[in-house]
Amino acid sequence: MGSTASIRRDHLSFSLNDVYRSTGTRFRLHVQSPVLTGFEEPETVWVSSPRGSLGPGPSDARMYTLQPIEKDHYEGEAQPPYRGKVVPPPLPDRYGHFDHLKPGDQAFQCAHMFGAVRRVLDIWEMYLGGPIPWSFAFTNPRLELIPYVPWNNAHFGWGFMECGEGKDDQGVKRPFALNFDVIAHETGHGLLFSIVGLPTPGTMTTAYRGFHESASDCIALVSALHFDSFVDHVLRACKGNLYAENEMNRIGELSKSREIRDASNATKMSDVVSIDTPAKDITGKQLHALGQPLTGAVFDIMVEFYLDRLVEKNLIAADQIATIRTAVMRDEVDATDMTFVERAYAREPAGFRAALCEARDMIGYRLAESWRRLTPVGFSYEKFAVMLLDVDAGLSGARHRQMILESFEWRGISAN
Ligand SMILES: [Zn+2]
User: Fold this and answer.
1) Ligand 1 center from residue 354 Cα (angstroms)
2) 151, exposed or middle or buried, with CB in 10 Å at 0-12, 13-18, 19+?
3) Does pLDDT of 9 surpass 70?
4) How much distance in Å is there from the Cα of 212 to the middle of ligand 1?
5) Which of 13, 20, 90, 295 gives 24 a disulfide partner, CB atoms 3.0 to 4.6 angstroms apart?
6) Same domain assignment for residues 218 and 191
């Protein structure tokens, strides 16, 4: 172990609401679809924007929301800033907050999109220790946010993010501007261009594109875990046992969270298209699959951090954790009695919640720092794995080394 500061960073865990409650701006965000039990009402959160600093839209010095009366999604020559007619923008309340708008109103969608992007920025700026400037700032100083265009997709592009709508897992058409997973994933792409760097045509490889999809999903997952209601929901659904594969699938069914479902996958590099395929020949579907082994490895590492924290907090004995690990390695999760986890969780849910929040911030900080040290030039999954090991070693010494190595190797990603 290193200095006091590094020990503190090793188990860094923070609540953004606590950090910004006295100075920030209130928004109400849907971390999951409102049709799900427990998520009917949006959750009130505090974002970092100083109270009273946000203008109509909402808007500030780095981004602005506008709702065009009629506009197709950006493609080809069409670029921001949008100069057509817009609907009147929502205003803050007299204290500067945006939590007074009614869910279902167009104005709420505008605030939801801005608040969700700001929330994701707050999380990753906390991990990186400072503001993350836009990669496109030299031509477009501000990000344009468009909550609705008639389109069945959402995308982040040069100086803009815009949302269409799509059917959720219940088959109901919903605006993506109200879908935190989608907004966080798209914001993730934007952040990665800033943190890792903008690829040139020469460095835009299949490996870098697969990594981008995976890392954006990781950003969405870690960001969702910053909502109290989501953390509690995940733990309740799996009764504290994040490693029980069948329970994890049930979370997927219950929460319909794309990221959770994809994150707990069993995909290996041998199951997906070759990483040497030229970037231009990859289909969207193949690209998404290519991100899966990497996302799965990161998720497994986060779950291991979680188990490690449970032992440290004396909530589960080390030999009991060994039972879980053996079952997972032998693919015998269903046949193994792990009710001891459920019993421990029922006794002390608050301890399990703290363990998951610490694991979330351990992986979040390590990811952000690894990305900061990487560039698109010569990027490979192996380089990412080695960097994550390096960053972890700087924080925790050799404690997690073997586990991280094995998590990547099981996926077919060598970190040696
Ligand atoms: Zn994407």
Assistant:
1) 30
2) middle
3) no
4) 7
5) 20
6) no
